Amino acid sequence: MLYIGKRSMLEKKDTKPQVEVHIFDFDRQIYGQEMTLSLTHRIRDDIRFENMEQLAAQLFRDKQMIMAM
Q1: Which residues pair with 3 in a beta bridge?
Q2: Which residues touch 5 (CB under 8 Å, ≥6 apart)?
Q3: Would you state the pLDDT for residue 24?
Q4: What is the pTM of this model?
């Protein structure tokens, strides 16, 4: 599951876009290593959340949708 955006819920609105990748069922330490990603599906546009609980609930739904694909 990948996110590309400004993470406005967590940081200042003027920040540069960030790339966040969540790899399910993976437990190795790969920070700082190069990797190649293949984007296969787009599941939704960016959403503005009122709080972290709403963000967490949406991420849970996103993961469920992805795992069902």
Answers
A1: 20
A2: 17, 18, 46
A3: 93
A4: 0.77
Residue position matching structure tokens 């996110």: 3
Encoded amino acid at 26, one letter: F
Residues in the chain: 69
Could you tell me the two tokens for 24?
Answer: 């399910």
Q: Which two tokens stand for residue 65?
A: 């949708």
**Parallel/antiparallel/unpaired status of strands 18-21 and 2-5:** antiparallel
Q: How far apart are CA 30 and CA 36, in angstroms?
A: 12
In the chain, where are the structural domains located?
A: 2-68
The answer to whether the beta carbons of residues 60 and 68 sit under 8 Å apart is: no
pLDDT averages per 10-residue partition of the chain, 69 residues: 81 75 93 93 90 93 95
- In this structure, are residues 6 and 19 in contact, taking their beta carbons and an 8 Å threshold? no
Residue 55 host element (H or E): helix 52-68
